[in-house]
Amino acid sequence: xxxxxxxxxxxxxxxxxxxxxxxxxxxxxxxxxxxxxxxxxxxxxxxxxxxxxxxxxxxxxxxxxxxxxxxxxxxxxxxxxxxxxxxxxxxxxxxxxxxxxxxxxxxxxxxxxxxxxxxxxxxxxxxxxxxxxxxxxxxxxxxxxxxxxxxxxxxxxxxxxxxxxxxxxxxxxxxxxxxxxxxxxxxxxxxxxxxxxxxxxxxxxxxxxxxxxxxxxxxxxxxxxxxxxxxxxxxxxxxxxxxxxxxxxxxxxxxxxxxxxxxxxxxxxxxxxxxxxxxxxxxxxxxxxxxxxxxxxxxxxxxxxxxxxxxxxxxxxxxxxxxxxxxxxxxxxxxxxxxxxxxxxxxxxxxxxxxxxxxxxxxxxxxxxxxxxxxxxxxxxxxxxx
Length: 386
Description:
Structural class: mainly alpha
Low-confidence stretches: 368-374
Largest sheet: 3 strands, antiparallel
Distance between the termini: 27 Å
Mean pLDDT: 80
Strand content: 5-15%
Radius of gyration: 51 Å
Helix content: 55-70%
Strand order of the largest sheet: 4-3-5
């Protein structure tokens, strides 16, 4: 059953190390390709050597990298012949579109068999020659790299002018009829190439079905992991909201306690302030009397009139003797002399300890998959699918 061809993006033909068209593309264990010479330099410079695109290991066996040369590791990886053919076709199309026969004449078509670019006149001649009349010629305006790759025949490795029609299973090579009768006469199995290609395509279809089934299964697993992550995020948001509400409640309680203590302290200080203020006012009044009488005595003392001195002195003596010289504070002012704030440090320490021990965050595995493990497994699955 025929299947639709998978389009290959231009960047798929570029090496991720040198960013040029792939040359001798080596297929890494992860499925990405690197030029052979870029792969060698990458293996020498990176320890451990990881794919520059997906960070998967290039050498799966860590011991192998120590006991095997880099050239052997690179050559042990298969060459992606499909990409190599596409790269060759792309290079062919990127050449100057000049007729290979006529000088400085623009080519209008391309022979998919021999790869020659032809002008309109040469295209007509190309279709009339007995050697090339069976060739497929496409217009340069519509030809693509996929078209060139699909229609370009693979010549025999020994006889370049012969097309490969047979497959030698002993050597795993496509060969021409001449090679079959000469070089591969003693091989145990030489089969028709189309038959072998049919078997290979059937096997490739099975492999594709297996891979797609694996992708679907991994997609389901990834979806389950995404659901787990969403549930974890939901639980996290709910827990944080609960913590915020609880802390807000504690903050309100602490603020209420602060206001109560502040009010009590302010009230106690007001009582002391009033008592001290009253005692101070009383002393100021008594001192004021002393000051005014001092001035009166001084005025009489300086008086020139004997009558004033003799008549005022007895009266002033009586007045001065009756003044209150006591500096003792009133009883209420002595009883409340200062405000002392007493906070039990043990109560504060106990509250701090309770706050530190308040609640414990635990991860309860769901289906034996903890949150961290979920993230790691999901990353691995995504890498496998990339």
